[in-house]
From TrEMBL:
<dbReference type="Pfam" id="PF07075">
    <property type="entry name" value="NamZ_N"/>
</dbReference>
<dbReference type="InterPro" id="IPR048503">
    <property type="entry name" value="NamZ_C"/>
</dbReference>
<dbReference type="GO" id="GO:0033922">
    <property type="term" value="F:peptidoglycan beta-N-acetylmuramidase activity"/>
</dbReference>
<protein>
    <recommendedName>
        <fullName>DUF1343 domain-containing protein</fullName>
    </recommendedName>
</protein>
<dbReference type="InterPro" id="IPR048502">
    <property type="entry name" value="NamZ_N"/>
</dbReference>
<feature type="domain" description="Peptidoglycan beta-N-acetylmuramidase NamZ N-terminal">
    <location>
        <begin position="44"/>
        <end position="242"/>
    </location>
</feature>
<feature type="domain" description="Peptidoglycan beta-N-acetylmuramidase NamZ C-terminal">
    <location>
        <begin position="247"/>
        <end position="385"/>
    </location>
</feature>
<dbReference type="Pfam" id="PF20732">
    <property type="entry name" value="NamZ_C"/>
</dbReference>
<feature type="signal peptide">
    <location>
        <begin position="1"/>
        <end position="20"/>
    </location>
</feature>
<keyword id="KW-0732">Signal</keyword>
<dbReference type="InterPro" id="IPR008302">
    <property type="entry name" value="NamZ"/>
</dbReference>
Length: 386
């Protein structure tokens, strides 16, 4: 036994230099020395939410502790605390903890007002994204960049890893289908961080007066885009874990169908189900829950479902859409009950038509390849990580 213990110790000791050589990842927000000097004497606005953490402290609290003049907090979809339903309007008000004004960017308007921007010298964006085009935090970043360019306010983006950063896939958005769930001509999975994307938005002139925008970014230290990254804070109420985030690119499209993706359960975006037909071995019943209080689809109905909580999810899969569309067709039921919304999610009407026409996944994917290759070339100057 003693000899076995000694061999194990020697083995671990031999491995230690390799393990110790891996430096710890540092988000942009954690690198205070890189950006605190930029804030000296400045009136600061923050576009942040519950993910804007430095360890156990929120960025707002850290900056206030360093006597930074924080003027106001801008709140995106789901609110500053990240507890509001998808699509629920966020009300402006006052943050109960800090007493700071709380200005909504997901209410009557999704852009800051002239009056708000004129009170600021610099705006910081620090929100954890999931790398999927229809996730709306990057749309809020777009509107803030636009306002900063218009009113001569500096913009600082504190970068965070993209948990889907290893993938560039899906249709590239056609600007004829531009909406808040798709602002830019990028693929569904763009493989970029928010700082890289901010640089691309400015560099490609996707906002008015892009050349007038003073944009600075603080990259993540010791990061590669193929690196696995488990989010320390859930980015929104219905993406509760790594599995939901990995499945989100594939399951988000089902929001344009009558089916449930598990909103109103403890496993949102990890199941697919319908009340009238489906697999017989797994069931659930959606109910009104915090973060899914606005009548989740099929609420209080027993749903026959596909359980995806243990599947190996990587990138974008069309098999779920193709399989369920075929099942709906077999039962003479309409699958895309919100076709216009499906087209906004896809950034094109071509995907919906291809699925309805019965094309295979390989045929559909082939139709994306030229645009994806062009996008990869176009994004190259803006990439910060290998």
């Amino acid at each position: 036994m003693k000899a076995l213990w000694l061999v194990s110790l020697l083995y671990l000791t031999a491995l230690w230099p390799a393990v110790a050589a891996q430096p710890a990842l540092q988000t942009g927000a954690e690198q205070l020395q890189q950006y605190l000097p930029l804030l000296t004497g400045k009136r600061v606005g923050l576009l942040v939410n519950q993910t804007s953490m430095l360890g156990q402290q929120h960025l707002v609290d850290v900056l206030l502790a360093h006597e930074v003049q924080v003027v106001a907090i801008f709140a995106p979809e789901h609110g500053f605390r990240g507890d509001k339903d998808a699509g629920a309007h966020i009300q402006s008000g006052t943050d109960s903890k800090t007493g700071l004004p709380l200005w909504s960017m997901y209410g009557a308007s999704k852009a800051p007002s002239a009056e708000q921007m004129q009170q600021l010298d610099i705006v910081i964006f620090d929100i954890q994204d999931v790398g999927v085009r229809y996730y709306t935090y990057i749309s809020s970043m777009h509107y803030m960049m636009q306002a900063a360019a218009q009113y001569g306010v500096q913009m600082l983006v504190l970068d965070r890893p993209n948990p889907n950063g290893a993938y560039v896939d899906g249709p590239v958005l056609d600007l004829a289908f531009q909406s808040f769930v798709g602002m830019h001509p990028i693929p569904l999975l763009h493989g970029m961080t928010v700082a890289e994307l901010a640089q691309m938005i400015k560099g490609e002139g996707w906002i008015t007066d892009a050349d007038k925008l003073s944009l600075q970014v603080v990259p993540v230290k010791h990061y590669r885009r193929d690196m696995a990254y488990s989010l320390p804070v859930k980015p929104s109420p219905n993406l509760p874990n790594d599995q939901a985030i990995a499945l989100y690119p594939s399951l988000g499209f089902f929001e344009a169908t009558p089916m449930s993706v598990g909103r109103g359960t403890g496993f949102a975006f990890q199941v697919l189900g319908y009340d009238k037909f489906g697999p017989a071995d797994f069931h659930f019943t959606p109910v009104s829950t915090p973060g899914a209080a606005l009548t989740p689809p099929l609420m209080h109905k027993k749903v026959k479902a596909e359980d995806l909580r243990q599947v190996a999810a990587q990138g974008l899969s069309l098999q779920y859409l193709l399989r369920w569309q075929a099942l709906f067709a077999k039962h003479n039921e309409v699958f895309f009950t919100a076709p216009d919304f499906m087209d906004k999610l896809a950034g094109t009407d071509q995907l919906r038509r291809q699925i309805s026409q019965g094309l295979s996944e390989a045929e559909i994917r082939q139709s994306w390849q030229s645009a994806l290759a062009q996008f990869k070339r176009q994004r190259q100057p803006y990439l910060l990580y290998p």
